[in-house]
Amino acid sequence: MTHVLDPGTLAAGTRPGPGPGTAFDDVTRSDAALRAFLHGLPGVDQVGAEQRAATLGTRSIKTTAKAWAIDTAISMVDLTTLEGADTPGRVRSLAAKARRPDPTDPTAPSVAAVCVYGDLAGVAKEALADTGIHVAAVATAFPSGRASREVKLADVRDAVANGADEIDMVIDRGAFLAGRYLEVFEEVVAVKEACTRPDGTGSAHLKVILETGELVTYDNARRASWLAMLAGADFIKTSTGKVSPAATLPVCLVMLEAVRDFRAATGTQVGVKPAGGIRTTKDAVKHLVLVNETVGADWLSPDWFRLGASSLLNDLLLQRQKLRTGHYSGPDHVSVD
């Protein structure tokens, strides 16, 4: 069973929306007020969420719809490399694949973004110039988030200065699980401010990684989603991909319900990015069905839904080739990432 937050819970006579000077001002004024709000959100029916996600995951789609789904999923991919052994050459190779995923078929769409560590954001930016493909950079002491706030903010500013269009930050899960919600909120607000470009041309979009595998419960996932959105997140993201379990359908369902309810209450739309463990076309299609059935077509766009993955693109391309030619290509049809 799903629940929509009653807009009547917002303070009367104030402007709706996240951030200072809005209907949530009182909610974020103190740790006690924020805790009361977050713990006052409707609880998640664990059995119901898992059953609904499982049911939607069994939906079959027709061939024409599958072709659309594959191309849509490709256009939503944040093509990712987050390894200590990453080199400028590897990032350039990934950028080339992002621009032209299937060199044999120019009709294949490009991906949404290339996601790298902040020190390589400049390499990706140069390689993707004039393509419309975004450069996402992980920051705030990714993946653990174990650093001082000053270090985290310097990490963000460095990535933005290097050319990152999007920042994927991690929340302090230790502070969240200890109930220090205002501390987490204020850190997200500070990171959002640090996303401002030094040349004054705007700000990098902020994706807030909840690391739901460490939050343990669906109630915590819902609370963390709302906390991040209240602090100004442009996207909420399930995972770093470094912790298991990462993206699961029930967790994605909970987060989609949160962005749906948040828009109903505030008028502000926030994106969702599941990441980690999404490897096959079937996985991607299940997520698209979940989006369509939970929040609707408004979110079926790379502007509002992303798939964080490193190996998913290859399977999407192989399945796309199968639909186009009637047979599977050999293993050399796609590049090795």
Automatic annotation (TrEMBL):
Designated name of the protein: Deoxyribose-phosphate aldolase
GO CC, alphabetical: cytoplasm
Cited PANTHER family: DEOXYRIBOSE-PHOSPHATE ALDOLASE (PTHR10889:SF3)
EC number: 4.1.2.4
Keyword Cell inner membrane part of the UniProt annotation: no
Species of origin: Geodermatophilus telluris
Pathway it works in: Carbohydrate degradation; 2-deoxy-D-ribose 1-phosphate degradation; D-glyceraldehyde 3-phosphate and acetaldehyde from 2-deoxy-alpha-D-ribose 1-phosphate: step 2/2
SMART domains the record matches: DeoC
Recorded GO MF terms: deoxyribose-phosphate aldolase activity
Region Disordered, residue ranges: 1-23
Record bears the keyword Metal-binding: no
Biological process (GO), any one: carbohydrate catabolic process
Top EC group: lyase
